[in-house]
Amino acid sequence: MRLAFLVAALPLTGAVPRDLPVKRAETPDPGWDGPPYNPTDDGPPYNPKDDGPPYNPKDDGPPYNPKDDGPPYNPKDDGPWPISSGTEAEATHAESLAAPNQTAASTPPATNSLKITILADSNRDGKVDIAGATDLVGKETWTEESGALFLANIVDTDRRCSSQITGSCADRLGDIFFLGFPLPERPVLDPKITENEPIDQFDWKDWFHGLSESDKAAYNEWKKKIKEYDEAYQKARAGSVDERISTCHDSSDDNLRNSTYLAPLRTTPNPGLSDSATGSISVADKTAASNVRLFHKTGGQWVFISSNYTFKAEDLRAGLELGIDGRDVRRPGGWDGRATIEFKVQDGHKAARDSVVLRVAPVLTQHHGQRLKQLLTATGARRDNQQRFIQELGQISSKAGLKAPLHVINTSRCEANEIWAQDFFEPGYMSIPGPNGPVSIHIMIRAAQDYRRAGRKIFQDLRSNTVGAVQHLAKGGTTDSTGNLETVPPYKHNNKSYPAGRAVLGWGDLRPFMMDFLDAQETQAPITLNTSWLAVQHTDEFMQFLPVESERGWVMMVDDPRAGLDLLQKAQQDGHGNELAISRPKSPTDPDEWRVANTIDELLNITNFAGFQESCAGYIEENINVIKRETGISDAEIIRIPSLYQVYYRNKRVWRYAKDDGKQRRQTHDLVHAQKSRGLGEQQGQQPAEDSEEDDLIGGYDALEAGTPPQELNDQPAKATAKSLKGRQEQRHDQAVALYPGTINSVVLNEKQILAPNPWGPMIEGQDVFAAAVRAAYQKANYTVIYMDDWFTHHEKVGEVHCGSNAIRELSAVKWW
Q1: Which of 315, 447, 451, 773 has its CA 20 to 30 A from that of 423?
Q2: Taking the CB of residue 136, how many other CB atoms lie within 10 A of it?
Q3: Where is pLDDT greater, at 79 or 322?
């Protein structure tokens, strides 16, 4: 009540004060502000009694009853709703905002005649249909079966970025990698101090002594800061090589260098727009917007669509030709590749909005059903035997008629003799539908081993106008070496289709970090196998998939230690136990002690030799059953290859080496006979050879060491006694490596040829029984085998031909969607 009294007591604006003469001048007097304030005009002082009786809740009436509200709300009572969804825009709302000063009577009636449409290749037929409705249905959702796709345009056209990667092992990055990167600020010295600074050192001393004391102090302080700056600058750059080496590529800025990889977007023509109409294109989500680029083709040129880019009426009338690409790929725990593109148009009082959803294509691993395009290998430390391996591989590549010659990656300045080209990267690809077939990009996938500097070489060495590279950095161990990553060719099973095939990885004690990256692609549903029984723990040590002409289109090759054991036992039973177990001849690059001196009897007499083969066979069978369950493959589609395994122990081997002369061989045979007569044959066969001069020639890390984080590697014992190895051999769970060169660790050259390491089995009646048995196994799939020697280059370092090479395969016919 007091508030009411006060409001009533205040004079209304423009009212004439009582008892004052009315001043009727046509022009008001600006100096007059009414009479002076008089407190008596406020009325009597406030009395609380004037507020009336205190509040009583009973005076509010009866409590609320929902039944008093009448019947429940029925949307049908509202009548028709005039605003349509999708391509019809918010016209009524726009009109209410367009002319706020209009009265209700003057507001024109709401109309919804403005319709706009943005389209992409949502039905994945390689083109955008703006005349019909094939790309209209479901365009605002994305599923595995439908929805438009685009590429991550991470190639390096004209090697703009790759050419600025230098250093001993791709460890120096040019300025282009640090654009916008917060480097230390260079100190500035007053130019007046140095304006007469001479270049000559002797003149400089006179010049410096001529400076004032304050200038000398300033100069010395500047020199000190410059030194600190240089150190900080180099530290900032050197410390971020692995993090930044992948950040420079075609889409790392806003310039379009290669329109081949733009996915198309179109807006339908809208000839009824007025000259004042404007439009805009944007990406709805902030994360997606940072990973997507949009372009407008105008005047024959592609122009980047920035956040403030506005389309003119003439372009909107004709329909927009747009393109989209990505700055990155699908990432675990990050961007999933989805992008909603919004199209908006304003034309006077009318506004319209439409959208379309796309997703960046997944990064996929290639399979052997894709024809071989190019072989790759690595130099290592350029030792003579590795150079010979490279030369022979190049000759085989040429004879195979591949499109591109052998590519040799220079790893001579990388960590200890990095020759494992299969293990520090995996060739993959991305592809989307195009008007003339798939549009594809090769993608080199770095192993998830950030300590493995050779992985940087894919960004320096392999990128081009058609090849990009990605990395998922982690401190992965040997199961993250990409020799552990294989791919089952395409198949259908249990009402599921895998048109790109499925990735296969082995697990040891830890889940490979690469699994997260593969899972994020959501396409190849990785199959996991138990490889803990292997020292190196790679799937390519015992399993391979071959394309064949059959309903399925492929078969599986697997190692068979039982068959390998049978070969030796049969030779022994046939009286050949005294023959050398290895038939390898001398190579020009071999060490002096090159000939393997072990006999068949010695191998078979190793304690638990047969039991260890049986144990390995059991693990292989376990993994075969996994592939059977996941793919539906039958026993008839599984081909077994004779093989044998030994226990792995660092720097220790079962094989003994001798010099190349007939006398040495006779001595070896006589020694075996003498041991048998004294009952000592079993003991001699069990003892592995100590380090010999061939270790110096081999050098560098073996396949396991190269894929082990340095800290873990340093914690392992470097040496072990023969006795400890013997003890390990007798344990069932000792980890295995190939005893003879593992022929399954081979390269699929084409649909008819395999390049495998020569097993150099024992010569029985003029024939290498292992080589013959392997040929016979591959012949079942109509393949012939080309053998090459890798004994001292790779086999003695627990790897083979496949481990020491890599392959880029054709993409032209690949269609995964």
Answers
A1: 773
A2: 18
A3: 322
Judge whether 170 and 456 are in contact, CB under 8 Å.
yes
What whole-number percentage of the chain has pLDDT above 70? 78
Share of the chain above pLDDT 90, in %: 68
Choose among 766, 553, 582, 578: nearest CA to 681: 578
At residue 344, what are phi and psi to the nearest 5 degrees? Answer: -130, 145
One-letter identity of residue 257: R
Tens-digit pLDDT profile for residues 758-807: 999 999 999 999 999 999 999 999 999 999 999 999 999 999 999 999 99
- pLDDT band, residue 228 (cuts 50/70/90): confident
Q: How many CA atoms lie within 13 A of 392 on its CB side?
A: 19
Measure Cα distances from 532 to 134, 509, 562, 599, 798 in Å: 51, 7, 20, 30, 16
Mean pLDDT for the chain overall: 84
| Residue from 716, 790, 758 nearest 535 by CA | 716
pLDDT confidence of 45, banded at 50, 70, 90?
A: low
CA distance 760 to 772: 10
HSE of 486, CA atoms in CB hemisphere, 13 A: 32
Q: Give the Cα separation of 722 and 312 in Å (integer).
A: 82
**Contact predicate 647/735, CB 8 Å:** yes
Helix (H) or strand (E) holding 547: strand 543-547
Q: How far is CA 340 from CA 165, 324, 569, in A?
A: 35, 11, 66
Distance CA 541, CA 326 (A): 37
Residue burial 534-559, b: 16+ Cβ < 10 Å; e: rest: bbbbbbbbbbbbbbbeeebebbbbbb
| pTM for the structure as a whole | 0.79
Token pair of 126, please?
């390689």
Angle, helix 609-631 to helix 561-571, in steps of 10 degrees = 150
Radius of gyration of the chain (CA): 39
Which residues are CB-contacts of 424 (< 8 A; sequence separation ≥ 6)? 418, 446, 447, 449, 452, 454, 455, 457, 458, 481, 482
